[in-house]
Design brief:
The protein has about 325 residues and is of the alpha/beta class. It has helices spanning about 1-35, 45-50, 55-65, 70-75, 80-95, 110-120, 175-200, 220-235, 260-275, 285-295, 310-320; strands at about 100-105, 125-130, 145-150, 165-170, 205-210, 240-245, 250, 280, 305. It starts with a helix and ends with a helix.
């Protein structure tokens, strides 16, 4: 019994030492696998190498290139920078454009109103009035305005009067009753077309023509027929921007009496009262419309744009 008890105790101790040995080995193996280290490395060296060796996740991060700051700026725009750009754009738009303009027909009712509108606008740097004889204006004319006297029968001898202008306006016009058939054609066609040709040759970018409601070169009536011919010929000159205005009956206090207009105005007075944009327009409205288009020509995509009577009213109302 004593021998068997001794053997049993010895076996129990031996079994416990084997169990503890295998348990420690299993624990160490499990910790090594979890830390990603190599087996059979002493404890202290193993800890140092574990600290120096990058993990798989760190390797992936280092191998992946960082995003460019510009990409982040595109995704999250700088609001302060955008606001600054917007403010700068508004300042540029509000600055005077320093346009140089000439006016042919400045002694007429539309021309007088146009000169007045130009004189009060800071975007106009220079105003050249091309006239047959000196014109007396009110006090609104300043040192930006000059008058150049020309012979309209010899316009080509006065090319220098049309040089170095950004914008040209032509409000020339007469009537068959006042000038006769030949005189009407010479003024409303020949003079106007010659003015436009010289303006184009000398680098004028914008050309504004005051034509008439109902202009149609295929008409059998002289007045609208001539006006339509002029519109076509000037459009074909291919200005950067060409603007044609077709006003109806002109409402103004003329310095001269045109009995036909007076009678016609009296007959149509009820219609013009109830339908002001239908067949008539104040001369001041035409001038305001012409100036408004001059300041913002890029609003109109086509090289040639025609404004009918109602369009003139709308432009004038928007730019009071």
């Amino acid at each position: 019994m004593a021998l068997s008890s001794k053997v049993f105790c010895t076996g129990q101790k031996h079994f416990r030492s084997i169990f503890l040995h295998h348990f420690k080995g299993l624990k160490m193996s499990t910790e090594e696998e979890a830390s990603g280290t190599v087996d059979n490395i002493p404890g202290e060296i193993k800890e140092e190498q574990m600290a120096e060796q990058p993990t798989a996740e760190q390797s992936e991060v280092e191998a992946t290139p960082t995003e460019e700051p510009e990409v982040q700026n595109e995704e999250v725009p700088n609001q302060e920078q955008d606001q600054l750009h917007s403010e700068n754009a508004e300042k540029v738009c509000s600055q005077p454009q320093s346009l140089r303009a000439f006016v042919v027909g400045g002694s007429g009712e539309v021309g007088k109103q146009l000169v007045k509108q130009l004189a009060f606008n800071s975007d106009i740097k220079q105003i050249t009035l091309i006239v047959r004889q000196p014109i007396k204006y009110d006090d609104y004319i300043d040192n930006r305005t000059v008058q150049k006297i020309v012979d309209f029968e010899k316009l080509e001898e006065h090319k220098d009067a049309f040089a170095e202008h950004d914008v040209g306006y032509c409000t020339l016009g007469t009537t068959r009753g006042r000038a006769g058939v030949d005189g009407f054609k010479r003024v409303d066609h020949d003079y106007v077309v010659t003015v436009a040709k010289m303006a184009k040759e000398l680098g004028c970018k914008q050309f504004h023509l005051c034509s008439s409601k109902g202009a149609n070169e295929k008409s059998t009536i002289l007045y609208p027929k001539v006006k339509g011919q002029v519109e076509r010929e000037i459009t074909e000159m291919n200005f950067d921007k060409c603007f044609i205005y077709r006003p109806g009956l002109l409402l103004t206090k003329r310095s001269e009496r045109r009995w036909g207009e007076l009678i016609f105005t009296g007959i149509l007075k009820p219609i013009t009262f109830f339908f002001p944009t239908l067949i008539s327009v104040p001369t001041e409205s035409i001038a305001k419309a012409m100036l408004a288009v001059t300041i913002q020509p890029d609003k109109y995509e086509n090289k040639a744009t025609i404004f009918e009577n109602k369009d003139i009213h709308k432009l004038a109302d928007e730019n009071k």
